[in-house]
Amino acid sequence: MNVKSSYLVGLTIYQLAIHHLYIHTVHTLPTTYSSSFQLLSAIAVTEKLIHILMETQLKEVEVVNRSLNFSGKDLAVRLFALTLTLVAAVLLGVNKETKTVSVTLVSSLPPIDLPVTAKWTQMSAFVYFVIANAIACTYGATSLLIILVTRGRNKVVSLMITILDLVMVGVLFSAVGATGSVGLIGYKGNSHVNWDKVCNVFDKFCHQISMALFMSFAGGIAYFVLIVLSTLKLHNKF
Amino acid sequence: MASINTPEAPLKTSAPQADYNRSKGLVVDVALRFLLFATALVALIVMVTSKQTKMIPVAPGLAVPLDANFNQSPAFIYFVAALSVASLYSIVTVALSILALMKGGISTKLQFHFVMFDALLLGIVAAATGTAGGVAYVGLKGNSHTRWNKICNTYGSFCFHVAASILLSLISSISLLLLVWLSIYVLFKKIARR
């Protein structure tokens, strides 16, 4: 889908929404004609402004596409992957929860309340997850900068970036796998080896882990999409 | 996206030296695919045959036989499923690669498909390695914070099987990585030559 058609679709949706809003306003405020007319004129002015803005942006995009040798799609997906892995690393890196658990030491005595802390450094799989996501995030920022600096003209650099994208796919998916399996044991427990579930106590901790997992999985898929995009770009040259 | 359906130009104009280089790349491709097939299949077999039964004392003077098996953990079940997919895929692609080698050169279209599906399978196999590795590490070392006791002091042979299987699946994911690198490099060279 090129920029022009997406712009037309966006403008149509905007006009439909405005029309709906206008009808709604007229029906709910039948007496205040002046305010509805003011609203109508304000809408018209906004529409005109957006139209002008979109036109200039369209021209700019066309100019950029002519002078540079990388696609905006590639940069957008890379930025997306960078953000997702950053959020995943931060979400798990700040994850800490303290709960009070009553422990019965001797059955004749009443249970004692003890504060127990769950932290991400206590499990090696989580440490691996944070490190892998931090590496993927740093690499995403570096490759973005390199593409912007070389303007996508250096062929060897773009080949290296594709090669390293693939490494990031492997690293991110293995981190998601490791954390997901440990998190599943924490969520369900495993009766065969007497590993009890911990998510009934640390619910916020587990929720944050699942959010980070989802983010990192999406980041891995974004790096995969980057490889597909660069392969398609190679394909179009044949 | 409009130019994706353009007819492919014939690639047979290059010199014999270039043909030799291309078929050398194809030989390496077949060898790597065969390595992938072998490691995935052996990892699968080692994981499936990892069952171990031990007499575990549950009370003084009373011991019951308890199994350690791969299907007791969802992580290992996923591992087995992913490596089965990898084995089947590698059988098909080894056949396709050998056919291309016998014909004297691989078509560019097939190579693009190889890149896509190899990258997808790399994700699946890497996730399987990570999954099994994460659980196996807890089984090896235990975790005092969650009171998950280590089990490898009891089920030694089971853990040995799991460790060997994870190592083999690591090798198969590395061979997938090398396969995609090789394909992209060959495609890149083809473009540079034109």
The class by helix and strand makeup of chain B works out as: mainly alpha
Give the amount of beta strand of chain A, in percent: 5-15%
In N-to-C order, the SSE pattern of chain A is: HHHEEHHH
The percentage of residues in β strands of chain B lies in 5-15%
Shape of chain A: flat
Characterize the main sheet of chain B: 2 strands, antiparallel
Mean pLDDT score of chain B, rounded?
Answer: 83
Which percent range fits the helix content of chain A?
over 70%
Detailed description of the structure:
The complex is a heterodimer of chains A (about 240) and B (about 190). Chain A has helices at about 5-30, 35-65, 70-95, 125-150, 155-190, 205-235, and strands spanning about 95-105, 110-120. In chain A, about 75% of the residues lie in helices and about 5% in strands. By secondary structure, chain A is mainly alpha-helical. Residues about 65 of chain A have low confidence and may be disordered. Chain A starts with a helix and ends with a helix. Chain A has 6 helices and 2 strands; from the N terminus they run H-H-H-E-E-H-H-H. Chain A folds into 2 domains: about 5-65; about 70-235, no CATH class. In chain A, helix 1 (about 5-30) runs antiparallel to helix 2 (about 35-65) and helix 3 packs antiparallel against helix 6 (about 205-235). In chain A, strand 1 and strand 2 form a beta hairpin. With about 190 residues, chain B is mostly helical. Chain B has one domain (about 15-195). Chain B has helices at about 15-50, 75-105, 110-140, 155-194; strands at about 50-60, 60-70. In chain B, strands 1-2 form a two-stranded antiparallel sheet.
TL;DR?
By secondary structure, chain A is mostly helical. Helix content of chain A is 75%, strand content 7%. Chain A folds into 2 domains: 3-67; 72-237, no CATH class.
Question: How is the secondary structure organized here?
Answer:
The complex is a heterodimer of chains A (238) and B (194).
Chain A: H1 3-28, H2 33-67, H3 72-93, E1 96-103, E2 112-119, H4 124-150, H5 155-188, H6 203-236
Antiparallel strand pairs in A: 1-2
Chain B: H1 16-48, E1 52-59, E2 62-68, H2 74-103, H3 108-141, H4 156-193
Antiparallel strand pairs in B: 1-2
Helix pairs in contact in B: 1-2, 1-4, 2-3, 3-4
